[in-house]
Design goal:
This protein is α/β, with parallel strands linked by helices. It contains 24 helices and 20 strands. The chain is elongated, with a radius of gyration of 25 Å. Its EC number is 3.1.3.16. This is Serine/threonine-protein phosphatase.
Length: 592
């Protein structure tokens, strides 16, 4: 019987290594067995070296597999993971269950401690709950995993000299022995020592400070030195914060932050990413190519233009504000290319159509169209056409602008040696929507989404159209056998003016947290443009049209079909297209 149980566990590990979920009943059994092991462990686990210490994984399964490839597989290598196994990534279920299975199989070789995302409250917001619902059709797997979270250790001590914790220190804890006395078998509290261990951050301050996260504290070098001296340790290893190089040393090397989700740094991805893709060497020569980028006078649009123009493209910066656009153009390093301003006001569908028609009169080709401009999270308002503004800008006007340009795009695609693409920038905000979304009529387009996070849901509804429009447009091109590739993408959480403006509208508590995260935890616009540029010009995309045509990309250019169910519904995509055409007729705008 023991052999049989072991065989099942080995088979589950092999299955999870292939990123294939195990059955719901197997998850339940695995979680029960894991709790039996974890309940015997101390709040602060004692670990002997050699051991490989890892930071946040956040559901980035293929990055974790790359880590095992580099560091060695378990049990050949001892591992200590410092929490945040789930949320944000698309494979949180497979990531956590594989680590759990390895823990059950090799309990002395795999140490797992709790992060702030191993929480019922947090996982209901940042993706793990929704992923469990999508993959298993119920909340059972999420509930069983959350029960395991409550049994995870709060820290570890390696060779008696290296203290490992997810977040940081607490003003209520002066010694490691005090951590051992905490009752850890509970949901993460909103405050107190246990909360601080999972949420606090080191900072260049003296003493203690309030954390802009809204939980935990900031602590300085003096606090770190005092804690290290009192507990006779040489180093504090922690996770919790993005470190662009994978780790960051602070306070005369008394503390190190470890980050193990390299996709955040745009350095590694799974097989549908391009591990060898490099801004400096892999963008092809774009001389002779004509590109239009909407909303390009700042943020990701501007950064995208900079990458493209450097490699010889003739780029049109299509935006509403001419003064801002020309000021932005003046700061670009043009390289072999050129940039021109093009007037485009997406708040008025008639102006959008006129802008496209005028472009047809000027240019004889259009190789790449990147629809980047958008309204983000704004108060509910309607245009003079009685359609809410976020739907008008993000979908209807963008639809008319693009469809008016399609004849020129198709003409370019029929020429020899061309690689023509349409890239529509969407957003992971679609996750705020449920599994039932419709675009049947004006009422659906004007849905206010009353209740909590209504503005975010309205924004998500408008950006779901970008994914659906892309898929339906690709289907129509394929039907006509026109070799145009259409892709949509989520650029990631980037430190841009748009995200800072979004943060400022979330109230002072959440706004402060989002603002701090935008400044400290997110890549720059130049780094964030990776997915834009990959979708627009990467040779791998053209080499695999059956894979990338109509695809939705997540940073760094990782194909996913698991955003929300409506995003994969071809009938909903057709419904959106047909209703858009009906609404355009109602407001007197005809597509040629």
């Amino acid at each position: 019987m023991v052999i049989c149980v072991l065989c099942v566990l080995v088979r589950q590990i092999e299955q999870l290594i292939r990123c294939e979920p195990i059955s719901e009943e197997e998850v339940k059994t695995l979680c029960i067995k894991a709790r039996e092991i974890l309940i015997e462990e101390a709040n602060v686990q004692v670990v002997d070296s050699p051991v490989t210490i890892c930071g946040d994984i956040h559901g980035q399964f293929w990055d974790m597999m790359e880590l095992f490839k580099v560091g060695g597989s378990c049990p050949e290598t001892n591992y200590l993971f410092m929490g945040d196994f789930v949320d944000r990534g698309f494979y949180s279920v497979e990531t956590f269950l594989l680590l759990l299975a390895l823990k059950v199989r090799y309990p002395e070789r795999m140490t797992l401690i709790r992060g702030n995302h191993e929480s019922r409250q947090i996982t209901q917001v940042y993706g793990f709950y929704d992923e469990c619902q999508r993959k298993y059709g119920s909340s059972n797997v999420w509930r069983w995993c959350c029960e395991v979270f409550d049994y995870l250790a709060l820290g570890a001590i390696v060779d008696g000299r290296v203290f490992c914790v997810h977040g940081g220190l607490s003003p209520n804890l002066s010694g490691i022995d005090q951590i051992r006395a905490i009752d850890r078998k509970q949901e993460v509290p909103h405050d107190g020592p246990m909360c601080d261990l999972l949420w606090s951050d080191p900072d260049d301050i003296a003493g203690w400070g309030l954390s802009p996260r809204g939980a935990g504290f900031l602590f300085g070098a003096d606090i770190t030195k005092q804690f290290a001296h009192q507990n006779a340790i040489d180093l504090i290893a922690r996770a919790h914060q993005l470190a662009m190089e994978g780790y960051k040393l602070m306070f005369d090397q008394m503390i190190v932050t470890v980050w193990s989700a390299p996709n955040y740094c745009y350095r590694m991805g799974n097989s549908s990413s391009s591990p060898r893709w490099n801004f400096e060497t892999d963008i092809p020569d774009l001389t002779g190519k004509v590109v239009v980028v909407t909303g390009g006078n700042s943020g990701l649009g501007f950064a995208t233009i900079q990458h493209l123009v450097t490699h010889g493209a003739k780029v049109y910066m299509a935006s509403r504000n001419e003064a801002k656009a020309k000021a932005a153009i003046a700061t670009l390093e043009l390289g072999k290319g050129s940039v021109e301003f093009w007037q485009l006001d997406l708040s008025d569908v008639r102006q959008a159509k006129k802008a496209a028609e005028t472009f047809l009169e000027k240019e004889t080709r259009l190789d790449i169209l990147i629809n980047n401009a958008a309204l983000t999270v704004v108060p509910y308002a309607k245009t003079h056409d009685d359609i809410q503004d976020v739907m008008m800008v993000n979908h209807i006007s963008t639809f008319v602008w693009t469809q008016t340009l399609v004849p020129l795009i198709e003409k370019t695609a029929k020429e020899e040696s061309t690689d023509v693409r349409i890239v529509n920038v969407s957003s992971e905000a679609v996750r705020w929507l449920g599994d039932v979304v419709r675009y049947r009529n004006r009422e659906d387009f004007n849905d206010e989404h009353a209740g909590w996070f209504a503005a975010m849901k309205r924004y998500g509804r408008s950006k779901l159209t970008s994914i659906l429009y892309t898929k339906e447009l690709q289907r129509r091109f394929d039907e006509k056998k026109v070799p145009i590739l259409c892709l949509s993408l989520h650029p990631g959480t980037i430190n841009t003016e748009g995200n800072l403006n979004l943060a400022s509208r979330q109230g002072w508590v959440l706004g402060a947290i989002l603002t701090w995260m935008s400044h400290h935890l997110t890549p720059s616009a130049s780094q964030g443009a990776y997915t834009h540029v990959f979708a627009a010009v990467a040779p791998d995309v053209r080499a695999h049209p059956d894979i990338f045509g109509g695809a939705f990309l997540m940073p760094p250019a990782e194909i996913t079909n698991a955003v929300i169910k409506p995003a994969e519904d071809p009938e909903l995509a057709k419904e959106l297209w047909e209703t858009t055409e009906v609404l355009l007729k109602e407001i007197g705008v005809e597509l040629t």
